[in-house]
Specification:
One of its GO terms (cellular component) is Golgi membrane. Helix content is about 100%, strand content about 0%. The protein is mostly helical and about 170 residues long.
Length: about 170
């Protein structure tokens, strides 16, 4: 009986020691669990805060994206309008350039024909001038001959007149 009693008491002490050990482990685990719960609570709050910030950032980004898309579309439309205007202006200027080129070519042809005509006219006038100069020189020469002959004739007539006058005087 004593042996049994000692044995049971030994078991009770062992069980109490084991219970004390488990109790300490339970308290340590409770403390750790409390720390884990607090940490989890902080993480959940932080996660909620991050989710809120993420949602706000996402909304801000969507607003920014829409504004940027609208601005890009507006800029694209403006660019297309400017391109259209420049393209039509380019076509007009190209047509004007072609017209000016044609006019230049026509004027060059006209200039060349006028130059040729001027050269021919100049040659004709030069020939006429040379001919007129020859005719003038010939006429001047003829007139000089005529003047010389008339002077000679005038001298002869004066001489004859003086002779007649002398004869009249002698006859008187």
């Amino acid at each position: 009986g004593v042996f049994m009693y000692n044995h049971l008491q030994q078991k009770v002490r062992n069980a109490e020691a084991l219970a004390q050990k488990y109790k300490q482990q339970q308290e340590a685990l409770s403390a750790q669990l409390q720390v884990v719960y607090e940490h989890r609570s902080r993480l959940e709050r932080s996660l909620q805060k991050e989710r809120g910030e993420h949602k706000k950032t996402k909304e801000d980004f969507l607003v920014y994206k829409l504004e940027a898309q609208e601005a890009l579309n507006k800029e694209k439309q403006d660019s297309m309008n400017r391109y259209g205007a420049l393209s039509s202006q380019h076509k007009i200027l190209k047509n004007q350039h072609e017209d000016v080129k044609k006019q230049l070519l026509d004027l060059q042809l006209q200039h060349n024909s006028l130059k040729l005509e001027h050269r021919k006219t100049l040659e004709t006038h030069s020939q006429k001038y040379a001919q007129l100069q020859q005719e003038k020189d010939s006429e001047v020469s003829n007139l000089q001959d005529t003047v010389f002959k008339l002077r000679e004739e005038s001298k002869l007539l004066r001489k004859a007149h003086q002779e007649v006058h002398s004869q009249l005087l002698s006859a008187q």
